[in-house]
Amino acid sequence: MIFKVFYQENADEVPVREKTKTLYIEAESEREVRRKLDGRSINIEYIQPLEGAHLDYEKKSPNFQVLETSS
Length: 71
Known about the structure:
It comes from Geobacillus subterraneus. It is a single chain. Helix content is 21%, strand content 32%. By secondary structure, it is of the alpha+beta class.
């Protein structure tokens, strides 16, 4: 399953909506997404599962690129 992760680049700062970034990652669950991103210094705001029409819509975005991580 593909997940869309909303995050802030600096985990030490207060989240500001205008600085929110997104990435896409393939995983079996939200827990696995968090495990795969554990070594990064980011502040995860929200993890959204993508499927069906929503996933098809996201794939049309020029920013859609699934992050490759080691498990």
